[in-house]
Amino acid sequence: MKLIIKISSLCHHFILSTNNRDVSFCCLANRKLERKKAVHIEQIILSHLLKPVRDVTLHANRLLDNYDEVIWLIGDGRSGTTWVSDLLNHDRKYREMFEPFHPQHVDEMSFLSPHEYVRPDDSHDQLERIAADVFSGTFTHPVVDSANHSHFYGGLLIKDIFANLFAYWASIRFPNLKIILLIRNPFSVALSKSKKKDWFWLTDPMLLLNQQKLYDDYLHPFEELIKKTSENNDYILCQILIWSIINYVPLRQFAPDKVHIAFYEEVFADPNNQLSSAFRFVKNTRENCHVELDEETIKRPSRVVSKDSSLFQDKSPVTSWKNEFSLKQIDAGLSILDEFGLAELYDENSMPNRKVLNTIQGL
């Protein structure tokens, strides 16, 4: 334990010294961001060191049935899932599991392909076994659990960015899951990914088309669109197409009462009411699950936000994408979305139109 405290002290000293060296070169917002990143790195290092101790605490909570309530927040990368997860867990009530189904960052999930599709009635023993461990709170991992420092929890909050295409399959096998699908404007998502090309994203939509069962069930009508978009290799348009597929499929699969659809833009505009709505779904009640977040919590950047984010450039994260693309790119992106019936999902103010969901879900 003394060694752990010493290492923590050295990490903290490095963070402070790094920030002091950079103070004359960075604005206050960027200094705070760099400090936040460094602290996150420290948390991961300590998480590895403290894993044996933390695992005892986490398993004790499982034995006490503290994980009965399971929220699964799914969405595309760069769609705000980390920020929304932080808001949902503002009081640190939940044990937060950060992207346990990530096929690259979590070794135990390396058997999964990015955005792997699993048919609802298919048997997938390997995935079902490890999913059972995740959804019961048995599974532990230094990165997945790096934000957990409490002794007692009142549920699980799991967030993932590669699980949209097997979420419905999981919901059938684990009916206690409360699934929240977070959607963000595809142009915003594509722009954000383009600024993080060195991160782990799916970049070629052909890899989705090549999943035979996904092709048979959903992608056959879009075969030529996918091949053409892949061949043209426009990064933004490929991301918009991938966004379309990984959101279109769960929207077609889930009945409205089996998933809560949240929009990043609505949470950004009215976080208290949107979180209250999410918790009414989780609690399965019509009663008012009132949430009142303070401004500091709402405006606190997530651990994965970068200094090129619109939040640090005095730009709106809802509409700033419009200044980054040409009209030709926007028209091409809308043409892709239109093929999936998603072109009208956002209005001219980049706010969601929920009526479009009814059409997609066949209501």
UniProtKB/TrEMBL annotation:
The keyword Transferase applies. The keyword Transport does not apply. It comes from the Bacteria. Pfam families: Sulfotransfer_1. This is Sulfotransferase family protein. Keywords: Transferase. It comes from Prosthecochloris marina. Gene3D superfamilies: P-loop containing nucleotide triphosphate hydrolases. Residues 70-331 form the Sulfotransferase domain. GO terms for molecular function: sulfotransferase activity.
